[in-house]
Amino acid sequence: MNSFVSPSVFVALLLCFGCRPPGQPTQADIELKPDEVRDFAVLYAQNCAGCHGKDGKGNSAFALANPVYLAIASDDTLRRGTSRGVPGSLMPAFAKSAGGTLTDEQIEILVREMRVRWANSNAIAGATPPPYAAARAGNATAGAAAYGVFCAGCHGPDGKGTAKGSSIVDDSFLALVTDQNLRTTIIAGRPDLGHPDWRHCSPERAISPREVTDVVAWLVARRKSNPGHPYASNQALEENN
After folding, report:
1. Which of 145, 138, 147, 150 is closest to 198 using CA atoms?
2. In the chain, which segments carry CATH 1.10.760.10?
3. What CA–CA distances, in Å, run from 142 to 28, 151, 211, 219?
4. Any idea which architecture 35-118 has in CATH?
5. Are 85 and 92 in contact (CB under 8 A)?
6. Distance (Å, rounded) from C-alpha 117 to C-alpha 43?
């Protein structure tokens, strides 16, 4: 029996059963180029989750899905930090124009979807949080008093930590966080670490904007210029001899 199938019959069978020649990929099989990705979940997983945690819930860096943080940080703040990075911290620049891998459109997708998915207008329950950025220079002496009221209960009277909270005067910690990061943490808290926001640092009352600024100044005053170096530099030794 002749098993030969003519080309015209073969084509007809393909059309009839909706098949495709073996090995020919569909559009879904073709992997997108990095700058063609438009899916928020993919962009976030590939660029943000390693530090900010799955679903924005925090990891080595603070939680982006914290609605109090999103209530005080503007879209421009999110956009600028993602695009240019944060000098003095471990946050790198992601924009192609700054040496990163993301297009401006991809950064806009991240910024827009973070707010759409994670912001909550009820998060601050009608309260007015301290502003994201400080309006004046802080006073470290006044900050010491404010620290005693709002922070010492968890972080200890000298900031070196207790069973309830970690050290916040550790050399490495202060070297890796910016002044703004300290301020943001005091205001928005770290839900992933059990750190309350500005309203709940004390059972008595919320910490005021001025006190937030002063506590940051108290912490900054404890930041060493050469963290992690137990000995003076050679230049300093030469100058003292």
Report:
1. 150
2. 35-118, 140-220
3. 61, 14, 8, 12
4. Orthogonal Bundle (1.10)
5. yes
6. 14
Sign of dihedral through CA atoms 160, 166, 171, 174? negative
Q: Output 11 or 116, whichever has higher pLDDT.
A: 116
**pLDDT higher for 210 or 37?**
210
Per the CATH hierarchy, to which homologous superfamily does domain 140-220 belong?
Answer: Cytochrome c-like domain (1.10.760.10)
For 184-194, write each residue's pLDDT tens digit: 999 999 999 99
Which residues face 95 on adjacent strands? 102
Exposure letters 20-37 (e unless 16+ CB within 10 A, then b): eeeeeeeeeeeeeeeeeb
Q: Residue type at 167?
A: S
Radius of gyration over alpha carbons of the chain, in Å?
26
Amino acid in the structure at residue 177: V
Looking at this protein, which amino acid is placed at residue 10? F
The amino acid sitting at 220 is V
Tens of pLDDT, residue by residue over 125-170, are: 889 999 999 999 999 999 999 999 999 999 999 999 999 999 999 9
Tokens 């329950």 identify what position? 125
The answer to whether the CB of 219 falls within 8 A of the CB of 159 is yes
> Of 187, 182, 212, 209, nearest to 198 (Cα)?
187
**Euclidean distance between CA atoms 89 and 100, whole angstroms:** 16
DSSP 8-class letter at 81: H
Computed from CA positions of residues 191, 118, 176, 149, in that sequence, does the dihedral angle turn out positive or negative? negative
> CA-CA distances (angstroms) from residue 176 to 50, 121, 136, 168, 172?
17, 31, 23, 11, 6
